[in-house]
Structures are given as C-alpha cells and as structure tokens.
Amino acid sequence: MSARIREAIAALEDDTAALNLAPPERVRARGERLRRRRTAGGVALVAVLTVATVSAGVAATNNGGTDASPPVGTGATVNCGDHVLGLMDRIPEAAITCFLDAVEAHRPARLAVTSPTTEGDPIPTLYVVGEDGTVEVTTDFRQDRFGGGQGLVLERCTGPEATNGRIMFRQCSSPVPR
Prior knowledge:
alpha+beta
C-alpha cells in the first residue's frame, strides 16, 4: 500500500472518529419503519384512487353524474355491491346472483368490480342493468400502466353468464371511449 493511501485512510479515520453513528440494528429498524410507512401510504393512495375511479364510473353511467330518480312505475336501482378482488379472487356468488336476477327481470341494477391486472394495477368495471335487460359495462383502464392506455370505455352487452366467478357476455358492442 502506498504512503498516500495510508495517509488518506488515517485522515478518514480521524474525520469519522468524532461521528456518533447509530448501531446497525437501529439503522435497519429506522429503514424498516420508513418502508412500512411508504407501503401503507401507497396502499391508502390506491384505495382512494380506486374509490374515486369507481365513483367517476358511476357518474359517467348515471346520466352524466346527476342523481335522477328512476321514472315512475319502475323500481329503484338494485345495488349488487362494490367488490375489490385480488388476482385470483372471484366475484361473490350473492353479487352474481343479484346481478343475473336483475338482468332476467329487466330490473335496474348496478354492480361495481375492481380487478387487478397481472401487474397489480386496479381496473374498475361498473355493470349497469337497464330496464330492457341490456347491460352497460364501463371499464376504466386509466390506471393500467402496461395495458396500452385505453382510458374509460363503454360497451353495451347482452346475455350475461357467470363463468369461474366472473361475468361474461354472449355479445357486446364495440368499445366506445368515454
């Protein structure tokens, strides 16, 4: 080792000797606390954005966001629930039954489902049953970072069926951006 390197190491040791460094376990614990805080904040942000997005979807399919009452002689809109699913989760059987019964009876109903992409991005979908038994499906792809940016899309569908805990349709219109 050269004399200059030894001098530099000695000077560095003198410079750091006065520092009061925390033990490694305290440094790791502080880093872990910060990581947990960031994770909790991220989860809270995703939850708030999901609720806001589903609310926007409801407003988009509900006469531009107005809370208009159903016409006289029609029943109130049935709420089949708001469900946030994990990657392999299924829509609860009770919600599917509620939705399919409403379609069959031509009774206004709504069902909101948020499903993640394989990367974990939340994709909210709002199903709204009309009095004629057709279903307006509004899907919000705006949070899909890897899916091509389709934005907010509306389809009109018929012939819903439950398949593996999901709702599928026999026929849907071409997607229309909203």
